[in-house]
Amino acid sequence: MSSLVQFLFALLLLLTIPVSTPAAPGYKGMSITSWTNSGYRTPNAEQSIVNLQQIGTDTVAVNLFRVTTDSRISLGNYGASLSAVRHIIKYIHSQGMKVVLKPNVDISTGVWRAQWQPRDVDYWFQNVYQPFIMDIAALAAEENVAILSVGTEFNRLEKYDRSWRNLISTVRSIFPGQLTYAANHSPAAGLGGYQTLRWWDALDLVGIDAYFPLTNRNNPSLFELEKSWQTIAANITAWRRRGGINLPVIFTEVGYPSRSNGARYPWGQDANAEPNQDVQANSYAALLKVMSQQDWFQGAFWWMWEVDPLAGGPKDNNFTPQGKASQKILEKYYRPIPIGDANLDYQFDQFDLIQVLRAGKYLSGLAATWGEGDWNGLNPTAALPHVGDGMFDQLDIIALLQSSPSDSFNAVRRPIPNLPARGVPEPPGPLLAVIALVVLVYLITRNKHR
Ligand SMILES: [Ca+2]
Ligand SMILES: [Ca+2]
What is the reported pLDDT for 443? Predict the structure, then answer.
């Protein structure tokens, strides 16, 4: 019996094993900011969005900044204009990704927004903040934005329960998508933070700006960073249980500057520190590994990707993962190479099967590489180069059939309700490709025996 026919029999036998269906993915997120009024409306910004799509991002948090006084909110010199915001939202959608719209309001005096305390709180909410948010909500509704954040890090104002609930119900009257709020990970001067906020039930998602310090020293080990994230995850789990909070959680912001002290001061400190990519990459890896195991976690919107596609790189010590080791970590989780993807185009389909059949290594006793069907062992994104057993045999077919198309961080996410579907076709599942393989093998063997 030829090895091809044996291959066919092995496949037919294994087809009786049920293929597990993966959960729908959550958010493979990233934050962007333009830092200028019109920066979102540039070819550079569009290129940055394309680059985000390339690394597997599926949802982009579009940040816009404003400056407030007691009586008005203004654009300021680093606020993105609404027309520029609309432009980048349309562009993100054109690339098949979803949008989180996240306004950030700073204080004209330069004091941190967590300390904002208007002289007349009711007046500010009703006549300053609400009209501003309603303009944003109208834009979000017109552009089919998936998630709108109703505010960012207003620690001192979070106690005004009634004002927030009024604002949220007014926003809901015009915006049909999901709502969140970006709460600080901790109190500021003893006030606010995600744990003390009492109006989460009015929203759809808990949003945390998750700048939890992970260590008290420079250059921590990956192990230490993972332990820290395990503690944080346990704290959030306990808080949800205690408060009866059933909402899923997103990290509306989380990030690490690529510095030796980046995990110690994730909010950024010591701008002149030596660049250090490992601390940033290990912090990304620790978060993604630990948080992927939490069933309430729906994704991180990393702070942040620049609208300059050339930003970042190994000599940069700032937040962006662009061109750094942390970008590779993101790609591993956001764009995993599925088992069976012999030609490394991120999809397992008939072209991979044609490639391995042409290589002809199945049960040949000859050494086989990933591209020739040696798929068992570690996924190539987990260890490059791929570590298999050097052969293409039944074990590789078992590995193929037991894998899910997104065997990764997002495979354990629960489906998100009520999100508008966007027009990116799903790649064919492994079962379909295996059926294609069976037909292909049948045709090849039939032609051979003629
Ligand atoms: Ca492929
Ligand atoms: Ca093998």
Answer: 56
**3-class state of residue 114 by DSSP:** helix
Q: What are phi and psi of 17, to 5 degrees?
A: -75, 125
**Nearest bound ligand to CA 354?**
1
Nearest ligand by distance to the CA of 430 = 1
Who contacts 137 (Cβ-Cβ below 8 Å, separation ≥6)? 148, 171, 174, 175
Kindly give the distance from the C-alpha atom of residue 113 to the centroid of ligand 2, in angstroms, as a whole number: 56
* 394 CB burial (10 A radius; 0-12, 13-18, 19+): middle
Answer with the residue of higher pLDDT: 231 or 402.
Answer: 231
Percentage of the chain lying above the pLDDT 90 cut: 72
Please, which residues have CB less than 5 A from ligand 1, an ion?
Answer: 341, 343, 345, 347, 352
- Mean pLDDT over 121-142 rounds to 98
SS3 63: strand
**321 Cα to the center of ligand 1, angstroms:** 26
- pLDDT on residue 336: 79
Give the position of tokens 């939490």. Answer: 294
pLDDT tens for each residue of 117-128: 999 999 999 999
Please tell me the distance between residue 340's alpha carbon and the centre of ligand 1 in angstroms: 7
CA of 388 to the centre of ligand 2 (A): 6
**How confident is the model at residue 11, as a pLDDT?**
59
* Domain 29-334: CATH architecture, name and number where available: Alpha-Beta Barrel (3.20)
On whether the CB atoms of residues 179 and 172 are closer than 8 A, the answer is yes
Distance between Cα 284 and ligand 1 center (Å): 27
- Judged by its nearest atom, the ligand closest to the C-alpha of residue 348 is 1
Model-level pTM?
0.82
Q: Are 150 and 180 in contact (CB under 8 A)?
A: yes
What is the rounded CA–CA span in Å between residue 281 and residue 20? 31
- Two tokens, residue 60: 């982009």
Helix (H, G, I), strand (E, B) or coil at 76: coil
Q: Is the pLDDT of residue 365 over 90?
A: yes
- The phi and psi torsions of 301 (rounded to 5 degrees) equal -105, 90
Angle, helices 277-291/325-334, rounded to nearest 10 degrees: 20
Q: How many angstroms is it from 355 CA to the middle of ligand 1?
A: 9
Query: In sequence order, what are the residues at sequence separation of 6 or more whose Cβ sits closer than 8 angstroms to the Cβ of residue 261?
Result: 218, 269, 270, 273, 279
The chain-wide mean pLDDT, for the chain, equals: 87
What are the sequence ranges of the domains in the chain?
3-21+337-405+415-448, 29-334
DSSP string, 344-376: -SS--SHHHHHHHHHHT-TTSSS---GGGT--S
